[in-house]
Amino acid sequence: MADKTKIEWCDSTVNPIMGCGGCELYPKPGAILTAIDTELKTRIEGWKKGLAREVFRELIDVAWQDLLEKIGEPLSGHTNEMTTTNIWHLRTQFADRVKNQFGGKLSFAALWAVESQITCYAAKLHLNKGRSIVNPTRNVHAGHALTFETVTQFPGRVSDMADEVDLRGADRPDKPWLNGLPRLVFVSDMGDALTRKTDFPFLQRELAATQSENGLKHLWLWLTKRPGLMRLYADRVGGLPRNYCAMTTVTSMKTLHRVDELRDVNAQCRGLSVEPLWSSVADEIDLRGIDWVIVGGESGKLGVVREFHVEWALELKQKCEQQGVAFFVKQLGKCPVLRGEPFRLNAPKGDDWTEWSDDLQTREVPEYFHYYRAAGVPSPSALFSC
User: Fold this and answer.
1) Is this prediction's pTM over 0.85?
2) How far apart are CA 352 and CA 384, in angstroms?
3) What's the rounded Cα separation, in Å, for the pair 84 and 97?
4) Distance (Å, whole) CA 85 – CA 87
5) pLDDT digits (tens, 9 = 90+) for 182-210
6) What share of the chain is helix, strand, coil (3-state, %, to 5)?
7) pLDDT 10s digits, 341-372
8) How far is C-alpha 385 from the chain's CA centre?
9) d(C-alpha 51, C-alpha 165), whole Å
10) CB-based contact 25:6 (threshold 8 Å)
């Protein structure tokens, strides 16, 4: 649990479950290997489909034998299987193999082919703090899952967060756009709590704390890339309580279907995290039933992250204004582009809005957030959707 966060659109984060079953930001191994083959076939004469899998399989076998020699027995979380975690940890060795076989100039291309596929911030923290096949003696950082694929329950975190001090009326000097609001708690910034239906009973027990006397003082912003599962969970509990904002992520046209699925969630408030945005979506996105749109560019290593065209944000802003949807620009990312040219910023993530033009300096929250507690803290009986 993190009591305070730098994320611009909330005050705190909480993770009853850490880890994730994968998404476009943290693809399955097969998708990563296919992307590597596709990229290297355009650069290397003689590269064939399936070669990335062959090379990584050999690298994993070698690393596994080294692991056994170093520590004798694998620890929980270690595996000699083809996983996204193992691919990431062996990416440098993979690049070296490509360099040795096909020439040194292709080493960067091989490394880029891997790193450009794995862009999830939460996943990268786990990759740096969890189990590693190439560093088998490394301890897992406290509070993290063994690996990002190892979806793990952490009981008690939501209850602890519910007991945090009420922030309504408090001054947020670093986030003045949140002044006057209850504490905004981002649920699941370090994974997806809705990866598995088998976690529903656990979630129902844990999230009961959000309806405690203290929990009712806060607003809980629950983000998932699986809004279909959120709908099933909401139906199970008779609808999400009114101090929830049901949210999902959109990254491109390929994930717009999530907006339709989110509309089916029995909730009083709904929001979209359109981050990282990889393409224009304003023409096709349907904002009916949506209360909030947060937009942002991709952060990460220069040369790996995708471009974020500022025009995409301005298009979304115009659509939100037309339809009465609160609009929030979180960051412009590592590689913002304006009118076809790099938009040079000092902030590494492009999150210092004093560097932006006036038309981008927009950080709104839904009106719902303001009137939720307009008459005090609602009683538990008044908190559920109809």
Assistant:
1) yes
2) 37
3) 19
4) 5
5) 999 999 999 999 999 999 999 999 999 99
6) 40, 15, 50
7) 999 999 999 999 999 999 999 999 999 999 99
8) 27
9) 55
10) no
